[in-house]
Automatic annotation (TrEMBL):
Transmembrane helix listed as a keyword: yes
Main location: membrane
Pfam family membership, one: 7tm_1
Entry annotated with the keyword NADP: no
Species of origin: Ceutorhynchus assimilis
Keywords on record: Cell membrane, G-protein coupled receptor, Membrane, Receptor, Transducer, Transmembrane, Transmembrane helix
MF (Gene Ontology): G protein-coupled receptor activity
Membrane topology: Multi-pass membrane protein
Bilayer-spanning residue ranges: 33-55, 67-91, 103-124, 145-166, 181-204, 236-255, 267-287
Listed PANTHER family: B2 BRADYKININ RECEPTOR/ANGIOTENSIN II RECEPTOR, G-PROTEIN COUPLED RECEPTORS FAMILY 1 PROFILE DOMAIN-CONTAINING PROTEIN
Protein name stated in the entry: G-protein coupled receptors family 1 profile domain-containing protein
Amino acid sequence: MVLSNMSHVLSSISNEEVSPVTLNDHWSRLARLILLASMSAVGSVGNVFMMSAVMIEDYLRKRGNTFLVNVGLADLLVTGLVIPASAIVILAGLKDNLAVCKFQWFIAAWCFLVTVLSLTAIAWENYFRLCYSIDVYHKLTKRKITFLLLSIWTTCGCISGMQFYAELSFDYCTRNDLGLIPYQATVCAIFVFFPLSVTLFCYIRTGYQVRKFKSRPNHKAPITFSWDCALAQTNMYSFVTFLLFWVPFGVILAIDNVNKVSGKVFYNLAWLAISKSCINSILYGMLNRHFRGAYVNLFQYCCCKTTVSFSRRQRPEGLRPSGDVRVHIIPGYNMYCSPQRANESGGRSKRFTERCSSARANGREVYEL
């Protein structure tokens, strides 16, 4: 009986124009495998770079940017688990697999809810960072952030798991018409529409306050404030991109509960929404200079095998030293070496003069401390 039900379900999946697991059957296996492998590789590397950038870049090492890392982690689960699962099914020569499909939809729904709540937290954090005093911002302690992140992952995991365990929501794999039941409507209202509305309100309010602050006469904002505004703008673009990728699938999902749509449109929009996890890190690298600089350092360190120094000093651009500074910890070299120092020494030490000459090698002034 169980085998007959399973075969019936698999046959219903196979009748769709586009498979929820292996994409369009009209494409060759090699083309689908290359596409999925490329999406997984590019997305996974990009998400790892995005999370690492917050750790190595001084400006990005702020407690509020932990929510950015949380979005990158959710995207990494999609690019590292959901997409490769389809590639494995294609390599195995299978058309569809119900267990793999349910696993993919569980992870995708889980990460979708985590991303929605994390985007709301990012917008809320940007609003308090730009529009309130530093004392108010410091109330966002590490303990509060940790508790909030654990609550987000636990709550979203329970919501995503209940729809499969108790069949309380729409079945993505079989597309069984369960109608708009109270559980599904409640989840959409509380964990999707309300957080997205709060996120939109926070960005609109932040933009209004920042423009009002900059319009003051004789106002000159510090460089860190400009960096915060640029990062908030990048976060807003990431939020808009998330809407552009997921709203079409959400609309089709709502329409499908009333009037059945074709599987080709349904699953193509679903994969379009999932592919958002592959480009979010690229978006931050293109629009934000600090992420872009961190990406370059990470690429040089990981791929080019060169020595890269990750700066730990926070200095404005105009205050950085123009020459090289090298520090020697050898006791015999604990001295300042400059042309003036060499002239003052006179004939005291020939070795001191030789050290000063070698320090000015290659046409650059190098001060040895």
